[in-house]
Predict the structure.
Amino acid sequence: MSFLEIDFFQFHARILKEAELPQLTELCIACTDFFQLVEQQPGSEKTAREILQERPSNLPISHKIVWGFEKDFKLVGVVEILRDYPHSGVWYVSLLLLSPELRGNGYGKKLWEAKVFNSI
């Protein structure tokens, strides 16, 4: 599945690919506070590329899924998921990131509780 509508948030979700690098870069820059805290560096195009490409060396790229969440045609969130990591049958959520204007409103918790990720 590459597109999912989450009506109760007016979000659209889709799997992100390299073509969305500019939008993901914009989100990473908007979330610089998070990246400063976690990685001691600002969000950037490099950060966006890492979200799309980096994974454990023994994990095929086909086992990495990056969901993007859009609201009003703007990328406002991302979820990075690794399938069969750290071992077969396990799904690992390595990042759930929302733009600053959406934080603190329960969106992350509601997305998690809605089991959006089960629709993959």
Notes: Confidence is low (pLDDT under 50) at residues 1-5.
